């Protein structure tokens, strides 16, 4: 176990600052052009897959009694990420629209890479920040999500996903046999709707109308409109299009991860619309060391759903007896998810083994597979 004394040492935070390495790669691609523009996607998927193979697993857990003040340098990287990402996105828009050494294809690939930054790191950091209480951190989460035009994710994630994960009411719990190419358009359609309904229901319980100024959707709309306008002012119509391209790539990556995190895992229906409490075995766990550095322990997802407000340095990992394990980190698993036949051939046996391990008493899984169990109350 990592003791509080070990955790507070600043040099132990450095592996989680690996995200900063993407910035010079983006600049190098923009300046050099050619094959250099593919550095970011290659680094994110292939580079960290190889690093995972070399560094192995990290199954060591941190002391949960570590005080908040000892986590400052872990928190700091997430708090400062918005200005970093802001400069990368708008700096790249200005550069490519005020220089002529990049071809159209090179520019598009470069901004695919920018989307890798804003999706792999930006949305992930916003996810960490939105779960925390300080107003500054929640604002940083909103600003990061605004830069990828996916602000509703905060409402959907906090009010819907965590409450209803593993039930038919959660859009982002991927169903058994559901390929990613069916899952993706479904969540793009359903998540904004479920987020709006959840916020409207909260206002209704306070006796307020859905369009009350306290509805965060007003803030979401203003932030996104502001970022779109700025992209146009910096780079014209081309800049606006490139901004939207990186946002789409970021959203695609987020939903790829959402797909992997809960694929085929369901909570037991207890009858009359009641479901068991969320436990670690309702999320796929991954202990790969290098990708957990990049993703600030997001792959310890079993513990995140068990204790949603736990800060990322303190997230626990679990054994195969306590939670289902992914065989590889997210870089490999998300790439596999893009090939549905290969994904089903590899993951469906693991889901069936999970059912036998945790729910041997359930003989008929048809309602769970189809998502036709009663909606949770």
Structural key phrases:
single chain; 377 residues; mainly alpha
Provide a descriptive summary of the structure in words.
By secondary structure, the protein is an all-alpha fold. It has one domain. It has helices at 4-8, 22-32, 39-55, 72-79, 81-97, 104-130, 135-146, 152-164, 180-205, 216-262, 289-294, 301-306, 330-337, 340-358, 366-370; strands spanning 269-271, 274-275. A two-stranded antiparallel sheet has the order 1-2. α7 packs across α10 (216-262) and α8 crosses α9. It is globular. The model has no long low-confidence stretch (mean pLDDT 95). This is Alkane 1-monooxygenase 2. It is an enzyme of class 1 (oxidoreductase). One of its GO terms (biological process) is lipid metabolic process.
Nutshell version of this structure?
By secondary structure, this protein is mostly helical. The protein is 60% helix and 1% strand.
């Amino acid at each position: 176990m990592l003791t509080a004394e070990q955790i507070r040492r600043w040099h132990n935070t450095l592996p989680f600052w690996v995200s900063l390495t993407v910035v010079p790669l983006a600049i190098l691609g923009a300046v050099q052009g050619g094959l250099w523009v593919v550095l970011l996607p290659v680094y994110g998927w292939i580079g960290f897959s190889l690093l995972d193979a070399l560094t192995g697993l990290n199954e060591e857990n941190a002391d949960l009694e570590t005080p908040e003040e000892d986590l400052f340098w872990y928190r700091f990287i997430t708090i400062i990420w918005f200005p970093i990402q802001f400069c990368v996105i708008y700096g790249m828009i200005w550069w490519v629209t005020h220089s002529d050494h990049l071809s159209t294809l090179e520019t598009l690939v470069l901004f695919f890479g920018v989307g890798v930054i804003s999706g792999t790191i930006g949305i992930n950091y916003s996810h960490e920040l939105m779960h925390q209480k300080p107003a500054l951190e929640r604002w940083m989460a909103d600003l990061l999500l605004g830069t990828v035009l996916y602000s509703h994710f905060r409402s959907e994630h906090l009010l819907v996903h965590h409450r209803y994960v593993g039930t038919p009411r959660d859009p982002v719990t991927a169903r058994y046999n559901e390929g990613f190419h069916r899952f993706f358009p479904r969540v793009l359609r359903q998540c904004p709707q479920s987020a709006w309904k959840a916020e409207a229901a909260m206002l209704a319980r306070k006796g307020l109308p859905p369009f009350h100024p306290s509805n965060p959707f007003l803030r979401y709309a203003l932030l996104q409109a502001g970022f779109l306008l700025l992209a146009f002012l910096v780079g014209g119509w081309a800049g606006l299009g490139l901004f939207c391209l990186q946002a789409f790539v970021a959203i695609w990556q987020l939903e790829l991860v959402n797909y992997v995190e809960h694929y085929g895992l369901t909570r037991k229906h207890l009858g009359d619309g009641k479901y068991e409490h969320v436990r670690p075995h309702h999320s796929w766990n991954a202990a790969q060391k290098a990708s957990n550095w990049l993703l600030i322990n997001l792959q310890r997802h079993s513990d995140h759903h068990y204790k949603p407000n736990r800060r990322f340095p303190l997230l626990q990992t679990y054994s195969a007896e306590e939670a289902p394990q992914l065989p590889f980190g997210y870089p490999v698993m998300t790439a596999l998810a893009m090939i549905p036949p290969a994904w089903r051939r590899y993951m469906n046996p693991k889901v069936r083994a999970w059912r036998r391990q945790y729910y041997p008493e359930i003989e008929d899984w048809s309602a769970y597979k189809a998502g036709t169990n009663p909606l949770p109350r």
